[in-house]
Amino acid sequence: MMSVSVVIPAYNAAATIGDMLRALSCQSNAPADMEIIVADNGSTDNTCEIARSFAGVTVLREDKRGPSPARNRGLRHASKDIVVHLDADTLPTRKWLANLIAPFSDPSVMLAAGRTLCFRPTTAVERYIAATGLYEADRAISRVPFPFVPSLNMAVRRNAALAIGGWAEDLMTAEDVDFSHRLLKMYQTDIAYAPEAVLFHRVRSTLPELAALAWTYGQGVASMYLRYSDELRWTLLTTTRIVSRLALCALAPPMLGVLRSLRLASSERVDFSRCHYLWWRGFFKGFFNVYYGAKSRPAPGR
Fold it and tell me: Could you read off the pLDDT of 195-224 as tens digits, one per residue?
């Protein structure tokens, strides 16, 4: 059986990391010599104490902020063939790990993705995220351009991850897009998808949290356009199309609100449209902030 290191970046995750580690300790058909590494990213709560209370869990500290430095800390410490990543606010099902590493029986497989579902969506925002499939790997791995594996449910060969230099520590978001792109480019391989490797994710639940998340996603996409300008092009025509799309999104909530008062639209549809507009407004604010901000800054030495 393949040897596995599980690396979990964590920051102030005391509310969720215990449940995640309990689920991880109950995995069916897990490798006997599996190592579990929590890379704490400077938590100020009792995340570390909770993690250390689980037998066999190694807790490392990484003071450089960001998920990439934390994952790199775990990657450098890992000693097994396959490195598996999940987040501290997720819940793996009992056969998650066995199913996620199964594709690596094929020596050509370098990178694999599991299936991520939203955990008990109850608020309008949670339902919106679940409906849009924000974390669904089957969409991410088939995306054009830049297919990728979401980092909260990923497995990768350790030697391959080290060969590309690990995770880009200058990226605070979209680091999984960058990581996947560099690895796939080096090894000229496809992403393996393990749909039975199911993981539940506790997603954002309020409108301000959704707006903040959208902002960071927009920043991440802009960072990729700047980082890979020879492969990605953002044009004035693209900007025009986006502004038009955003305008239509802005009109939808009040129009649907009127229809709801006439009992021609459901409250759920109104909530979805409101979340949809908030998402795209936040996303493009974040994008333009990074993309055009970087373009307007003078080159070093000028």
Answer: 999 999 999 999 999 999 999 999 999 999
Q: Please, are residues 78 and 5 in contact by the beta-carbon 8 Å criterion?
A: yes
Q: Which residues of 86-101 are buried (b: 16+ CB within 10 A; e: fewer)?
A: bbbbbbbbebbbbbbb
pTM reported for the whole predicted model: 0.89
Enter the CATH code of domain 4-201.
3.90.550.10
User: Can you tell me the distance from the alpha carbon of 212 to that of 282, in angstroms, rounded to the nearest whole number?
Assistant: 7
Q: Is the dihedral of CA 251, 252, 255, 257 positive or negative?
A: negative
85-98: average pLDDT: 97
Q: What's the rounded Cα separation, in Å, for the pair 89 and 271?
A: 25
Please, are residues 246 and 281 in contact by the beta-carbon 8 Å criterion?
Answer: yes
Element (H, E) at 291: helix 267-296
283 pLDDT exceeds 70?
A: yes
Residue 275 one-letter amino acid: C
Domain ranges of the chain: 4-201, 207-296
The 3-state secondary structure of 258-279, one letter per residue: HHHHCCCCCHHHHHHHHHHHHH
